[in-house]
Specification:
Elements (H helix, E strand, L loop, with lengths): L2 H39 L2 H20 L4 H7 L6 H26 L5 H4 L1 H29 L3 H24 L7 H19 L10 H35 L2 H14 L1 H20 L4 H36 L10 H26 L3 H26 L2 H11 L3 H7 L7 H21 L1 H4 L3 H45 L1
Helix pairs in contact: 1-7, 1-11, 1-19, 2-6, 2-9, 2-10, 3-6, 3-9, 4-6, 6-8, 7-8, 9-14, 10-13, 11-12, 11-13, 12-13, 12-17, 12-19, 13-14, 13-15, 13-16, 14-15, 17-19
Amino acid sequence: MNKAEVQTLKRKSVSGAVSYFARSLFLQGIGFVSAIILSAYFAPEDFGIYGIVLTIIGILIFFSDIGLASTLIQKKVEPTLEEYRSVFTVQFVLSLVILLVCVGVASTDLLSQKTGMVGNYILLALGISFPLATLKTIPSVMLERQLLFSKLVIPQIVEQVAFQGVLIWLAIAGWGALAYVPAIVIRSVLGVITLMLIKRWQIGFSTNWLALKSLLGFGLKFQLNDFLARIKDQLFFLFLGYVLPLRENGYVQWAKTWSMYPYALTVNNVMAVTFPTFSRLQDRPKQLQSAIEKSLFFITLAIFPILCGMVLFISPLIELFPTYAKWQPAIPSFIFFTLSIAWSSISSPLTTALTAIGQINYTLKLMVIWTILTWVVSPLLLIWYGFTGIAAAALIISCSSFLSVWYVKRFVVLQVWEQVWRQLLAVVVMAVLGFLGGSFWIRSVWWLVLGMGLTAATYGVVLLAVGKTVIFSQIRSLLAVRTEKLSNSA
């Protein structure tokens, strides 16, 4: 890759990141508003039912993908039409198998014994979404390879608006967890139609085993990593759904869902852009280092104060709004899950970098460690502290994420501490102020708003005091790339 190609890649990545983040901010805003409304109208049991079914689907997703789509993205040269069709054929067949499995499970009492018939209906709706989602795989891969993230997010907006709109409408109408069924189906259909209109390709079936064999080397390792992730997350939470009462499982699902919003807004958005970018820069160590460090800097810049604010103000919020008092038992779990996200915001970009540069073996090692810790530490804390112990275990296990820094440094020279210490210092001062003023924030909604404003301002002031030069330098570097892109377009 020559210098001009690197500059083009950089412009596309920054432009894509900005566009993708702006649209995703809109998506997360919709999801955030929806979660507020659903928390008021849904009982903890409703969250528990959906959480159990979603966990089952998460496990089945593993069997609908053998890592081939990620291999197409990571591939250095443009995949052939034969390779695209071969991957599509394999995934479509697997999706039909998953649909049949969902139908089989729904025709028995395996799920309904825990969730009632509504669980079966949700499972069938999600099962139908599998073949539909397969139709989006290749167009999505093509857009990612071209770094056209601004187009890729349009179907997501359509899906999110449709899903949350139907869900809220039916929740208010008193459907309970059953509201998920039509919402899931409508989301799936509209998502496929939208993406097919944006990115057309010569859809077709192929069974070119030579093409598949060339992709499976990386793909199977990638999928093994995903398999361990399923054991660590979905299978473990399915175990929880079995051993915990539905209400307590609902508390855990509610706390985890809310804690993940900052992660989805920042880390997921950045990683969606950086994976193909890192892959293209794997032969350019200096540029790769810069890209990883910028990812760490801007992710922590945004996510640290959000996580801190969530921990500081969750109790005052619930106390001031009696409608949400039913979630009081879930507050400790929410706090533990939220704090664990801070570590994930650092480790996730680094594990993404390892995968993108082809060092999937190290990602596998990390996943093995985290899987073992999850199945050892979490059950112990569950026994000792009840359902709150699950979130406490997540926080303890997240501290092992320092290993991702160690592994990445074997291949890329990184200054991780330099990218995060200013944000960490500013958020500690923010947390101290928020904690000291805790007795004031619960007096009224106006005091609560004042507290949020003061703590946010404190973060900004401290950050500027210790890192004004670095922050402006980082922002200018992104704006320069953006300006260059606009100039070239003109």
